[in-house]
Amino acid sequence: MIMQIEHLALWVHDLELMKAFYLTYFDTTAGEKYTNPANQFVSYFIYFGQGKTRLELMTRPNIQTGVGQRGFAMGLAHFAISIGQKEKVNAH
Predict the structure, then answer these.
(1) Among 4, 17, 24, 41, which lies 20 to 30 A Cα-Cα from 86?
(2) Which DSSP string do the residues of 25-83 spell out, in sequence order?
């Protein structure tokens, strides 16, 4: 079984500024902007190369700075580990 960190997700205040930072100073590309109008969630995936760990930059108006409810505070939100296929996950 091949495992890798699939992506890391960060809450940010200025989504476009952070996207520009990674595109300017690292050898990365960005996916299409994702927007969910129902909860005002907006994100980009930043790609470090084919098959490599991605970085998800996320924002929404109610993100807090400092200590807050898990998943709704600035900074690292989550990381995901890929084991290759959905079938492998369901087999365990």
Answers:
(1) 41
(2) HSS-EE---EEETTTTEEEEEEESSTTSPEEEEEE-TTPBSSS-STTSBSEEEEEEEE-
